[in-house]
Amino acid sequence: MADDQAYTFDRSSLRFRSLETGRFVPERDVRVAVDAVADLASRRLGEASARYRAGQITVTEFQAELMATIKESQIAAGLLAYGGRQQMDASRWGLVGQQIRVQYQYARGMIADVLDGRQRLNGRLDGRARQYGQAARSLYENLRRRQSAEAGMAFEQNVLHAAESCRECLAATAAGVVPIGTLPPIGQRICRQSCRCTLSYSRTMSEAEAA
Amino acid sequence: MPRSNPRRHIDVLAEEAARLLAERRDAVVLSDHALDAAATVKRSDVDRAIAFYREAVAGSGLESLLDGPAREDERDG
Q1: Cβ(A24)–Cβ(A16) below 8 Å
Q2: Beta partners for A146?
Q3: Predicted confidence band at B4 (pLDDT cuts at 50, 70, 90)?
Q4: What is the pTM of this model?
Q5: Which residues of chain A have a pLDDT value below 70?
């Protein structure tokens, strides 16, 4: 289904709204879009790694593709978190740029490992490359968390989505509703970039319990 | 004609190979300065990211979610 609708972003509820219908875009739909961005990036990076291993591209070309895909997916995740291009300002772009820089540092380490022979040229390289695509999901979650705190949300709750979760994600869920900023950030838990958890936010404890 | 020393010859080849590998590594692995420059978000990067997003969500009905004009404070380039 092609979509030619125009959307706006409601700053008080922090949600996208269709200008045509006036309805909010459900948060789960936005998260499906985030997943799609992370998955496309992962697929591209895994394929680029496989092409490099097969001798079809040089290490320089592999690195260029790695960096381009990281940037595209991180910016897309940032735009989804903040509500589109119109909601961005220099400070928000700076924050997204910092996160791209962090991913670039990790990617540089991987390329150095390849050149130094510390990273074997097998399927593990493809898996390692794919992780940089999954980082889009944690960027989205962590920007949403920051934005929620700025908008006055006082509580957070971990929501599991994966069929199997690491012990840190299970513990975060078991903690229930806690003050915002308490839980370990998505992407920095034992499961790292494989994390499929999300965080939900509320202004009051009673609002959280009613959700 | 002097007799060649095979051991010495292998050492020279190994040194040359190591030097070439180090040169290649230095040419590929980016400096901190290069990473800083590459991580800066420019308007053309945002355009590419939105195209990437549209490809990722094709068929979902949310393709135009991130559409919209660029703001003036986006960096040129």
Answers
A1: yes
A2: none
A3: confident
A4: 0.88
A5: 1-3
Per DSSP, the residues of A172-196 read HHHT-SEETT-SPPTTSSTTGGG--
Report ipTM for this prediction. Answer: 0.90
Question: Which chain A residues have a beta carbon less than 8 Å from that of B20?
Answer: none
Q: What are the residue boundaries of the structural domains of chain B, listed by start?
A: 6-74
A81, amino acid identity: A
Helix intervals (H) in chain A? 27-53, 59-82, 90-116, 123-150, 167-174, 205-210
Q: For A74-107, write each residue's pLDDT tens digit.
A: 999 999 999 999 999 999 999 999 999 999 999 9
Strand order, beta sheet including A155-159: A178-179, A155-159, A198-202
Is there a contact between A115 and A141 (Cβ–Cβ < 8 Å)?
A: no
Contact A97 B39 (CB under 8 A): yes
3-class DSSP state of A166: coil
B residues 21-50 lying closer than 8 A (beta carbon) to A = 21, 24-25, 27-30, 35-36, 38-41, 45-46, 48-50
Instruction: Choose the mutation target among A43, A58, A103, A115 for the interface with B, i.e. most B CBs under 10 Å.
Output: A115
